[in-house]
Amino acid sequence: MESNIYQVYEDEIQSLEEEIETLAREYENNQLESTLYSDEKILMPVKPFQRESHEEYEEPEFLPDLKAWFNSLESDLSFLMKFTGICPENCSRKTLEKTGNKAIQNYRLSGKCHSLPFDLEFQLLETQSEEGTSATVTDLSIIMESDEYCDISKIMSRAEEEGNLLLFFRAFSNFAQWCKHRKCTFLHFKVVC
Amino acid sequence: REPAQGGAERSGEPCHQAVLTPLRELHPHSPSHPTPQGWEERPPNGLPLPSFLPGVLSHLEKLEARAHELALKEEETKQQRRQKVARLRARIKELRQQRDELKMKVSLRQMAVRADAEPVQTAKMREQVLLQWKVENVEAMLHVFYLTGISGKLTKHGVCFCLSTAYDGNYLDSYYLDIVIKQPVRIRRHSVPIFIPLKQIAEKYLQTDIRCFLTTLSAHLNAYVGRKYQADYLQKHFSAFLGRHWQTNSLCNRLTFNYHVTTESSTFPFRVKLVYGDLDRSLPTEASDAPASLLEKVAAHSSLFTHMALHKAFDTFRKAAENPDDTE
Fold first, then answer.
1. Between helices B123-148 and A63-84, what is the axis angle to 10°?
2. What is the pTM of this model?
3. ipTM score above 0.90
4. Among the three residues B220, B250, B284, which one is the final residue of a domain in this structure?
């Protein structure tokens, strides 16, 4: 009699474990490709949901801390976007290779910098070692149309050649701010004339 | 309350049930916690004992002890069974939770956040998994900002900026500045090395244009890091070309060393002094080679050093040495 109950329980345990293994594998596969969101859809504050069932579920202790952590990260992110003027709108990242302590990811990053659109693609190689994680950018390609940017095309091609994201963003950000000032000035004169 | 004389006659049969009347009830003046040993110590009060009674009593004691033991064992088995069932149930609950969480994670990744998403789990679990996903999302975005050169974290007083540096696509050290945003803007703490002219840059830009201050400082830091990287790389990968005297300063903007170049069958020694006049650049403004027999080669080298990274210049020497036919 009792052995029946044990059998039932143990069968359920086994089927749950198998299900978990399948789901974990599926999650792992899905992790390889993901799109990051930066607009309000995702940055909206976490709203409380309606209770759907009366199933017992203990509130995990870290949930309020996680919320606080998310809120602080989110305010950091919106500050950085306002301060630097760099607003990534679409960022997709795909894991191309992951072996041992090395991972290569392909990034496609597009958005606006001080209202000027940018579009980049690059690969990031990350290596774990005792000192920490080291990152290297390879294969940077700047995808935007260059007719508007002929003034900085020389710097842009140098940045592309060297895989220098920092140079790209510094130059592009300066250029975009300058364009903004120029527009403002012209608008001013237009009104005056 | 039959006296157990019948039991004595059926002594061969095992008796599983603890239905035997505890012997203490036959003797009203006996202690409240009788044990078989206790019985042996206390003779019954005021009752005449028939001669066969001690034998019967001891037998009954044995039976009682046995019954007691069996009762304990059964209680133990029952408890073990209960514990096992409880363990199995707990495990099932844990696995169910794990499975439901994973299911939610998988389904969330497959579809974008939709208000009409099929409710699969309880509200709290869904909220938690969604929150975890959002945190991952924001953390990845912040990592992207790190890659652009300027990132940071809001603090009580203002902002703690992080300036990342990179050379040749390789991300190197990051430098931090804890800045108070309210007027007057000031730097509370920083990890910028002292040989970087932080004070001058701050005097020029900090109060009026923080962004400009940071980009100028970032340019200096990146240039320093780039010069250092080139020098270290040269020493590591081109040591065969280098002589013994290597002189540099902390800012890595003055570099003097000996090297030699081999063409055909001869080796020519050189001593070069590189001056990096622009602190926000990683290429030297001046390169003076010590006079050598072939002045043209000296001129060629000087221009090489001022136009390309150190290790790339030495790469051309290496290639020239390997292919002597290609040299002019």
1. 30
2. 0.62
3. no
4. B220
